[in-house]
Amino acid sequence: MSSHRPAPEHTHPDDVPVVTAFAALADPVRLQLVRELAGSPEWTRACGSFDVPVGKAALSHHFTVLRRAGLIEQRDVGARRVNRLRREEFEARFPGLLALALRDDR
Questions:
Q1: What is the pTM of this model?
Q2: Domain HTH arsR-type spans what residues (predicted)?
Q3: Strand (E) positions, the chain?
Q4: Are strands 45-46 and 72-77 parallel, antiparallel or unpaired?
């Protein structure tokens, strides 16, 4: 019996409405995920490597929202699912939005 999971579906930022992008970035957990990805080399962060206050099912949901908003790509490497922030593609679709989200205005 194989435990192979299907590859995640991705939405290109060109196909994302601005309200979807805003909604994805409005959640504090998703914003933290995006900020951590922005500070990491591409394809180095596995889903379980983020220090967020949610369980595995909720974390999976947050990654799905980020994929559907065109913010991240994911791929499976062995048993790990690794992530990449789609910085250039997202910036081309929504100039300046990601830079605003990444600012720490505490």
A1: 0.91
A2: 10-106
A3: 45-46, 72-77, 80-85
A4: unpaired
